[in-house]
Amino acid sequence: MKRLITLLLSVAGFATAEYNVGDRIPVVLDHFGIIFERDTVIDTATILYKGADCYVAACYINRYVNKKTGLIDSTNTVADTAFVDSVAQVVYEDFQTNGGKSKLLSVMGVEPSDLVDVDGDPRVFIILAPVYPGKKGAADNYNSDPGLYPFFGYFDPFNEDTTDTTGLSNKKEMLVLDVSPGGVPASGYPALLAYLYSRYVMWSLDPKEELISITGLAMYNAFKAGYDVKEGFVAGRCYGGLDDNTNRSLYSYTYYYTNSPVAREQDKERSLLWFLWLDEKLGDDFIKELAFNKDYLARYQITEKLSSQLGLNMPDAFTQFALTCALNHYNVSGYTFSSLPGYQIFTGSKAVSSPQRIKENGQVIYVPFKKAGSQAMDIYFKGQEGNKMVISGDTVPGFRVFVFDTTTKDLTDYTDQLDTINRVILPQISGKHNIYVININTSTYYFWIGPGAGEPAPELIGMYSIQNPAFLKVADIYLASKHILYSDASPADTTPKIVLEPADPSYNSAIYKLSTFLTNDTAYHGSVMKRLYTTGVSIELKDQFGNVFSGDVYVKLYRAMNKLGIDVSNPMEDTLGLVHIYGAGTYSLIGGNVILDIPQGSMANGTLLLVDKADAKLALADGSEGTVFQIGASSIPVMRPFTVWLATDGLRGLYYKNGDRWEPIQAYMSPDNTYLVATLSKTGTYLLGRPSAPELTVPELWAPTAIREGEAKVFLSLPSASSVSWSVYDVSGKRIAQPYEGTLDQGSYVLTWNTSGTSSGIYFYRITVNEETHLRKVAFIGR
User: Fold this and answer.
1) Domain boundaries in the chain?
2) DSSP codes joined into one string, 598-658
3) Helix (H/G/I), strand (E/B), else coil: 445
């Protein structure tokens, strides 16, 4: 392949050129594949050294096209030519005089004939130049990510970008070293040159290999040849940031260049460590096999070898490697491991000594925990939900979580404690520890670190729903809690979430995030309410065919926990009923607790009713007692009365909330005494029980007209304290019983008469309230 390229180029007229010291040669420094757009500028380099293995040339001025004007009016100029000359001498002596080329080829046993030679000259060109950094600001409408600059050097093979054959290229094997002001010291350039030449060697062995594997193999080759590429490169930071010292990274990442050999070099050091780890586990012969195997990508060979020889799948191997880097001398802080697509790590260093939230999405986080003193801290880890991956049919966690005690050197694996939403609450920690997270899927995750107060699980008070009177297709759902609630460890998730699930699974569920409605501590339902949360939800639920749902909807907690990830101690749900009215119909809702009988013409077709029930102390909080029934909204027009059955264990007063007033409603018990039955002409809020301030002006009573053996009942509501008397007479006028005589306070009552031993027949009730007497005729039909 390499010889074919050389032959074709020779036939095309590219004859071998011989240069001498002092000659000036044309070079293209910033063409496509290295910098954003193919340049049309030819610069000039002067040959400073010539040997059997290389030319060393300097280009003191680098001109390039201004991307805004399109003119050749931008330049990079070497300010210190003496520095450039000193670098030229250092790299020539290392590469030529001291046999650097031979050392680099001998690591893998590479012969010169194995290398691509496009110009017929076995020498490589080492060009020293002020490289155009490629920085583009927002004003230029380009990506201003600082990771696009600066370059410290690159390997430039002929026609490196096979997708673009237009424009200028150098048509020679060329290694470009950046000698811009503020670059690396002269002593650092031999290591950079060794790495770049090794890239040329690895690319020559297999031009089709993935570029990140070429990076790792090149670093490995330079390291094995004796060059300090690891310790010399580690101090630089990812995204182009540089430490203000001489131990700088010699290359920052350039992710735009996906078709170029310079692509994905953002982590040469971590790639080196990966191949050193593979060498340690699988042997150096395997690394050589990777370099020379042209028919199989290195990452596939690595995966198969780890499995067959060590029994490791890639997530497990990756975890071992990452921990080895973190716990041992391989720790290279500040780089992204990208040797294999999909298995990348970012090792960040965050010293934590006070309560705080941390958000990350890198693949390894290294958190030094340095809390002083004896106070323990609670630590809650939460990975973004749903992050599981399947390998060979097995589901494995997307996260691995470890805690390292820097004093005892104990490493504890908490991976098995991750629950189904990738959450784990670590034991209280004090002193110095490191936390390591292996993030297989590169997903977002969070830490919440707070003072160890042994915070208990939060407790709920209740839930209820009200149909919005202005927006009838919306319900306002309320959740009362004794504690402050969160839905996740993210700083944005400081309120709980609920999910609406229709009883019919053919209709879609929906998740809603609640907002805080009340925040003050409030005496509530025999306890203290810390928070009342609410949200508006759509109640016009449809299936895929556009049909509107009628029936029960379950309102469940989706996420409700304290800030340390502890779920509520009493998870609950609310069931609400939805009625989509078209004509007449009977609807059983809330598990049969409410039955609506809607006659034809009662409400407009398409009307949507929400029905819910809740404890009056929760829904009203005004001193009322009993059960609140929400039957639609008060703004819904009712043209004809409808009937409602409300489940109850005995008759109590029924009231309608009309503004600030409670209006009594006539109601009676069903024959089986399980439902209170009423005919209603309004929708809205009803109370079955005792309102805080009933608006009764006259006594109200009701008695069944037919009774059986057992207990006969009279239901009585009093507007104020009253004297009450109830007597029973037969048809002859004889009083046969007096079930009650006395004084009752304001409120609703059920008076009873034991009818055992009473003969069948007609009887009369005489009920006196204060000075007002009521007569009722009843039929006793025995058993």
Assistant:
1) 1-202, 206-338, 356-481, 571-690, 700-781
2) E-TTSS-TT-EEEEEEEEHHHHT-SS-EEEEEEES-TTS--SS-EEEEEE-SS---EEEEE
3) strand
**Inter-residue contact 236 to 249 (CB < 8 Å):** yes
- Give CA–CA dist 50/360, Å, rounded: 51
Question: Higher confidence at residue 451 or residue 723?
Answer: 723
Which fold does the domain 571-690 belong to in CATH? Chondroitinase Ac; Chain A, domain 3 (2.60.220)
Task: Transcribe 663-728 into DSSP letters.
Answer: EEE--EE-TTSSEEEEEES--EEEEEEE-SS----S-EEE--SEE-SSEEEEEEEESS-EEEEEEE
State the DSSP code for 404. E
* 571-690 and 700-781, same CATH topology: no
Whether 425 contacts 445, CB under 8 Å: no
The whole-angstrom separation of Cα 249 and Cα 237 is 7
d(CA 44, CA 61) in angstroms, rounded, equals: 8
Q: 3-class DSSP state for residue 773?
A: strand
Pick the closest to residue 622 from 691, 683, 568 (CA basis).
691
497, 487 contact by CB (below 8 A): yes
- How far is Cα 291 from Cα 105, in angstroms, rounded to an integer? 12
Q: What is the pLDDT of residues 174-209, one digit of tens each?
A: 898 888 755 567 888 898 899 999 999 999 999 888
pLDDT at 295: 85
Pairing of strands 661-665, 668-669: unpaired
Residue 354 neighbours by CB distance under 10 Å: 11
Q: Pairing state of beta strands 642-647 and 668-669?
A: unpaired
User: What is the rounded CA–CA span in Å between residue 28 and residue 161?
Assistant: 14
Q: Tokens at residue 203, please?
A: 């690319």
Q: How far apart are CA 75 and CA 60, in angstroms?
A: 10
pTM of the model: 0.60
User: CA 111, 114, 115, 121 torsion: positive or negative?
Assistant: positive
- Contact in structure between 266 and 254 (CB atoms under 8 Å): yes
Distance CA 480, CA 524 (A): 9
Asked if the bond preceding 150 is cis, omega within 30° of 0, the reply is yes
Distance CA 617, CA 628 (A): 9
What are the two backbone dihedrals, phi and then psi, of residue 755, each rounded to the nearest 5 degrees? -95, 5
Nearest partner of 665 among 728, 707, 715, 625, judged by Cα: 715
Backbone angles phi, psi at 147, to 5 degrees: -70, -10
CB 654 within 8 A of CB 667: yes
Report pLDDT digits (tens) over 642-685.
999 999 876 578 899 988 788 888 888 888 888 999 999 999 99
- Nearest CA-CA partner of 149 in 287, 257, 16, 231: 257
Taking only the tens place, the pLDDT of each residue in 500-547 is 999 999 998 899 999 888 776 665 555 566 788 889 999 888 888 888
Nearest Cα residue to 104 out of 176, 193, 15: 193
Q: Does domain 700-781 have CATH number 2.60.40.2550?
A: yes
Question: Is 283 or 333 the better-scoring residue by pLDDT?
Answer: 283
